Amino acid sequence: MESCRILNIIISTQDHEDVGEDHGGLTLIGQFSLGLFYYIKRGIKCMCRELTQWEKAVEFHGHECPGLAIGYKACEAAIKKLGIRFSADEEIVCVTENDACGVDTVQVITGCTFGKGNLLYKGTGKMAFSFFNCSNGQSLRMIVKPLNEEMDRRQRQEYLLNSPAEELFNFSKPSFELPEKARLFTTVICENCGEGAPEHKVRINDGKKVCLDCFMDYSRGW
């Protein structure tokens, strides 16, 4: 970007100045301004450098951790083995069997999100991800192999990030078919609370159309 190029020229010019000289003669405002300049300068350097995929995932998630690294390596394997790219719509679908940290990496790197309908949750609790390439019908499921419990948090993260995918995951074909594409549904107004809900989430209670919040379920065991 042109703005980054200009800022980098300013920064490189300032970098040649003697930043270690005695600034004792500066006023308090002057010292504050100088400190603020170098703080902003460091930030500009970061902004003008494109973040790596890992850095983007950490930024989105809020912190780095082994769970995030698992999702990162799963995406890396899916990209390599299925030849997928960032999914602008529903070209790629991911079925995650957990709701752990790694799911955030999947959203950032592959573009599979709950909002687009191409990130689906299958709650087995397993650290497993299945990727479907809808353009050619290819699919791949991967599940994390047991990890060495003697490693601490930092060691586990470094091990995950620096190990080949084949060492981390068992790969197979998903045992389930992909559900239909996301659909739009007619909104029905609940006759109890007055709130709208999609028609496939509406139930009948005492002859009234009600939402799931207002629905009083009846069950005697099965």
TrEMBL record:
Residues 189-220 form the Zinc finger DksA/TraR C4-type domain. The keyword Cell division does not apply. It comes from the Bacteria. One of its GO terms (molecular function) is zinc ion binding. Residues 60-153 form the Formylmethanofuran dehydrogenase subunit E domain. Keywords: Metal-binding, Zinc, Zinc-finger. InterPro entries: FmdEsu_dom, tRNA_methyltr_O, Znf_DskA_TraR. The keyword Repeat does not apply. This is Formylmethanofuran dehydrogenase subunit E. It comes from Desulfosporosinus lacus DSM 15449.
